[in-house]
Design goal:
single chain; SH3 type barrels; three-stranded antiparallel β-sheet; 11 helices
């Protein structure tokens, strides 16, 4: 019995040992899963975006440090960047101009100022004109010579006066024998010739513009004169008979009325040809013109008719070149015939062709006192 109890105990103990490793294995798997979950969260988390302002400030700071290092190398032959400092500053360009202007200070080594003036001339920035003009009074002749050369590129109108002074007064020479005044005179001549070329180009442009404007005015004046001449001809040309017949607009009831009058009314030989009230022949004024007291161009002007006026034909000359007319109801307010009976003579070229027979009338020349003076219409 004791042996059996011992075996049961051993089996129970063995089961307990067997269950314990299973619990330990489950714990390790959970830890691995948690580690994988944390790693996954770290991988999927968004990367922090860099601050653009901070990046720009860092880049600006790095550029300033680079420029300062290169300017320091300009005047130090033992510096490792000395031989390429000018080229690197030229590559940087405009951002390096303020530092190069400061390098022209007489307190800096003369080699630094000399190389700085050379670099400014090659960059060609106009902001360097003022400091280069000040460098013309630098105590070192090498620096003055380099400033003169740089002003040939970036110099303005102020540089002309200073270069004249240097060419006249500066007797210094560079360490290799170049005359500062001679260099100033050479640059001065170069700038003056360039200015003359620019002025000549401006004068040529102005002259060309003036010539083109003059040609345009001549053409415009020619067109205006042509138009005015054409406008003057309006109303003066004689209308051909064929055109007048096409333009004429006779009253549609004229022929029936005339036939009726001939059948029912016997004409009175003693009555004037214009006395018949029913035998009315009308027409249209084709062109604005004058009304004369007599059928001649030298006759006294007693009024005028306007285009599209309706007139009543009263008589005609034997050659039908003139018609005696009276204004009908439809006429312009400016039209007027100033005579006792309201009738006057109009040239046939101004009127439509009358449809029907008109009395022939050749009036005698009136006495001078019978002509009634009229005012201009």
């Amino acid at each position: 019995m004791e042996e059996q109890d011992q075996r049961i105990e051993e089996q129970s103990n063995g089961d307990g040992v067997a269950q314990k490793p299973s619990h330990t294995e489950e714990t390790q798997v959970g830890q691995v899963l948690q580690s994988l979950s944390r790693a996954t969260r770290q991988l999927t988390a968004p990367a922090p975006t860099p601050n653009k302002r901070a990046v720009a400030q860092a880049a600006s700071t790095a550029l300033r440090e680079r420029i300062s290092s290169l300017i320091a190398a300009l005047g130090d032959p033992s510096h490792p960047l000395h031989h390429q400092a000018v080229d690197d500053l030229m590559a940087i360009g405009a951002p390096a101009v303020p530092a190069l202007n400061d390098a022209l200070n007489p307190n800096r080594p003369w080699l630094t100022a000399y190389r700085a003036a050379e670099t400014l001339g090659q960059i060609g920035d106009g902001r360097a004109a003022g400091p280069l003009l000040d460098a013309l009074r630098h105590p070192n002749s090498n620096v003055r010579w380099s400033a003169v050369r740089a002003l040939a590129v970036v110099g303005d109108a102020r540089a002309l006066l200073e270069l004249r002074r240097v060419a006249r007064d500066d007797q210094g020479k560079t360490s290799w024998g170049e005359s500062v005044g001679g260099a100033a005179q050479s640059v001065l001549d170069q700038m003056q010739s360039r200015n003359m070329l620019l002025r000549g180009a401006d004068l040529i442009k102005t002259a060309v513009a003036c010539v083109l404007m003059l040609v345009a005015l001549i053409l415009a004046w020619s067109v205006v004169n042509t138009l005015r001449a054409e406008l003057r001809q309006v109303g003066r040309e004689t209308v051909p008979a064929e055109v007048a017949e096409q333009i004429a607009t006779p009253a549609p009831t004229l022929e029936p009325v005339e036939a009726l009058v001939q059948e029912t009314v016997a004409p009175e030989p003693t009555s004037p040809p214009t006395a018949a009230p029913t035998n009315v022949i009308t027409g249209t004024v084709l062109v604005t013109g004058n009304v004369r007291a007599q059928p001649t161009r030298n006759g006294a002007r007693i009024g005028g008719v306007t285009e599209n006026d309706e007139v009543i034909f009263l008589a005609a000359t034997p050659d039908h070149n003139w018609y005696k007319v009276r204004l009908a109801e439809r006429h312009a307010t400016s039209s007027l015939i100033n005579s006792d009976d309201g009738a006057g003579w109009v040239n046939q070229s101004l009127l439509s062709e009358p449809v029907g027979d008109l009395p022939i009338e050749q009036p005698e020349e009136p006495a001078p006192e019978s002509v009634t003076p009229t005012a201009a219409p």
